[in-house]
Amino acid sequence: MSKMWQISVPGSTANLGPGFDSIGLGLSLYLKLTVSVQEYWEIIHLDDNGPKEFELEEHLLYVIAKKIADQFGKQLPACRVEMASELPLARGLGSSAAVIVAGIELANQVCELGLSVQDKLNLSSQIEGHPDNATASVLGGLTISSMNENGIVDTFHVNDIDAAFVVFVPDVELKTSESRSVLPEQFERTYAVHASANANMLAAALMARDFKRAGRYMEADLFHEPFRAKLIPNYTEIHKEAKANGAFGTALSGAGPTLISIVPTTIADDFVKAMKNKFPDHQIILTKADEHGIQVK
After folding, report:
1. CB-CB contact of 91 with 258 (8 Å)
2. Buried b / exposed e along 126-159 (16+ C-beta atoms within 10 A)
3. Is residue 94 marked as binding?
4. Does 293 count as an annotated binding residue?
5. For residue 130, what is the DSSP state?
6. 89 is in an annotated binding site
7. Residue 189 annotated as lining a ligand binding site
8. Which of 6, 189, 235, 261 has an alpha carbon 20 to 30 Å from 285's alpha carbon atom?
9. Locate the GHMP kinase C-terminal domain: which residues (predicted)?
């Protein structure tokens, strides 16, 4: 058995507007782990995108790996784990989902579980509570998913998303729990039908790679963005300037506070320059859809 593994997990954006808790997109921003078996546990963060101080038993990676090992009746061996992440915490770029997927894969490798891709989709989505970020981190590309009452995930997976994505990351955290607290408990039927139709059109446009139409529906969400907008720095201004500079559309990335624009690849570099001038307090990152999902070497 190999005693060292390199695990790479893409971050993700979820919802893309009205695709609430079901649409995800793997991004070329990564969590990377170097794992080796040793006599005692070490988790070493190589950057600031991880907790500075923690108890091992409370670290999400360890919690997930131990949970999966226990679930399959295996003893999780002690490991040295070096973690490097391009995913800022609590910003809506799937940082927790990436760690969950990484923890499942760590247990899969060191305990020789032989998990299938479907197993990884089910386990990660069950732990997350919904399949949007989790499926995108497992598979990469665009995922449109549903999870039934038994925790079984069904996913449409589409690669070759030939568009650029630009994320606007503010210097503030927003916990998903806080962002969910502002959402209504229920909607009237006619409102829900309209919101659902917008989500259907978004999914269809993305699968057809009609990015102009997808951008329009990204900005037509009724499920969550109207209620979360007040929590997001420069929400209205970024939408306006992104559109004026050629973006197809802009939406919250997951629960926020990061915003994400879908942009024609031909104007991506100029778009980023213009946005950096307009919003110097944001970290503005040009990225693209990841094509591979989780990778192990």
Report:
1. yes
2. bbbebbbbbbbbbbbbbbbbebeeeeebebebbe
3. yes
4. no
5. S
6. yes
7. no
8. 6
9. 203-280
